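Researcher: Here's my situation. A collaborator sent me these components and asked whether they could plausibly form a single complex. I don't have experimental data yet, so a predicted model of the whole assembly would be a useful starting point for our discussion.
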Amino acid sequence: MSDKMSVLAVGTVAFDRIETPFGKRDRALGGSAMYITMAARFMCNDVRLVAVAGEDFPEEYIEDMRSRGIDLRGLEIKPDELTFAWGGKYHYDLNNRDTLYTDLNALSSFNPVLPDAYLDSKILCLGNLDPVIQNSVLSQVTNPSIVICDTMNYWIENTPHQLNNILSKVDCLVINDSEARELSGTANLVVAARKIRGMGPKIIVVKKGEHGALLFVEDTIFSVPAYPLEDIQDPTGAGDAFMGGFAGYLSGCADINLDALKSALVYGTAIASFTVEHFGPEGLYNLSMTDIYHRIGAFRNLTSIPEEILNQS
Amino acid sequence: MSDKMSVLAVGTVAFDRIETPFGKRDRALGGSAMYITMAARFMCNDVRLVAVAGEDFPEEYIEDMRSRGIDLRGLEIKPDELTFAWGGKYHYDLNNRDTLYTDLNALSSFNPVLPDAYLDSKILCLGNLDPVIQNSVLSQVTNPSIVICDTMNYWIENTPHQLNNILSKVDCLVINDSEARELSGTANLVVAARKIRGMGPKIIVVKKGEHGALLFVEDTIFSVPAYPLEDIQDPTGAGDAFMGGFAGYLSGCADINLDALKSALVYGTAIASFTVEHFGPEGLYNLSMTDIYHRIGAFRNLTSIPEEILNQS
């Protein structure tokens, strides 16, 4: 038995082709479910993955995840199909990228049926995916403590009704700043977060890439900067690793209150900072809790306002 | 006698034409020296302005500044000349603007000679201006405690030698993120700050607009977010008001150490947040120290990482 809540993540596993100004990788292990679970496992020993792969998915990649404690009973391998594949090329400043291709392959007919052992999952991460699939997974879990959802511009533009349906059922939306603006139809992020709260989720996390993340819950706003790094290799998966770190932290919280959510935001941002220092998921392979704690201490130094600021002579 | 250090700001006074999605103003009081001094005065009762205006500059604008305690002995009024005029139009998200026109007018022949009473100025703000003029002012002040300099892409591109000359003589450079990247020739802001430190200034402040500001000093990085506001009317002057708040806070510090610089960054960001809530300098007119302290408390709530983050069960 675990003393922490279980984390279930549905999303993709993928072959990623990545080009940045600092190098490239082809057929690297990728996908939102992979990044979420590989990040969540640092804080949680019961992390469950739901995804689909094709028959070309290497045993080595399965072992990469299994050896790190990810429960893969929800990974469906479809014979006669190929694994979802994505290619992206980042611009010189790493803030923008062009998608080179998106081959859905096995993902196009994905209709997940959760293993019985997953039905009691407590922290549910609905990674960026067709909202119909997100909805299907949500409907199968019996009594989640918190449902955290990601999405992207494709679903905002092409399946707004299905997206609105899932949004009405989740507790927390994790979303990029540009997508928060698009979803709400407003440029101001404070107004955007309020409008999105009106669609259902009571907790909004806005991811701002190199500028960090904002948490909106009730009347509170909490801000965490991205960790300033000299050497960023590849931003791929940073947003998903953030979600995994966020969920992983919450799995150990007896009460998911405001301080727990703030701390989860810091953990998610810290884990994301390790992800971008290497290509693909490599930054998450040999990380220790000591490394993570050390970086969280660095976050405190980065953001702590001096006590004496209001007591100047 | 003042118990604080004096602040001298050289820069522009101007007629601003401002268009944002929320309104427009024509011939509004503007200019970097105006914004710097109008922001610095909250924390300092000896704030000195150096700028030039034409004969069309209204007595009302002079009174706007004088009534708020700005020392205007360094404001030269050129007969038979017109005041510097600038027009800008902001895009829907307020992060980008087009310059509609820049009429130098009296500024084109500005060659400031400081009043004797200014020569002992302690905190020197070299607002965004021709680096030759910045250098001239710097050379006249006898023994400043700290020299803070701003610049912009125009001087980076058109007068690099003169800019490098002034950079080699200043203590602190306050600069936009895009301009820090341009000046250093690197996309990564941590690397950019280190390269710029190699040009002279030991303290680098990078302004990131709606994403706040970063302080780089020795091996320390300190981050302050912009205050999340629902209602932003006009970003004009926010960067200059930041510099004024930053300098104003330092004027009361017996020792300009790391904590003083961090606190100054928070004050500058707080004052800038009031500036953008109104058009032109209107947000700085009726502000009280109570308002400012209240917002600084809000900044602490916005950024304070919960104490228990490292002690999770």
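Model: Some features of this prediction you could bring to your collaborator: Residues 122 and 144 of chain A are 4 Å apart (CA to CA). The longest helix of chain A spans residues 258-275.
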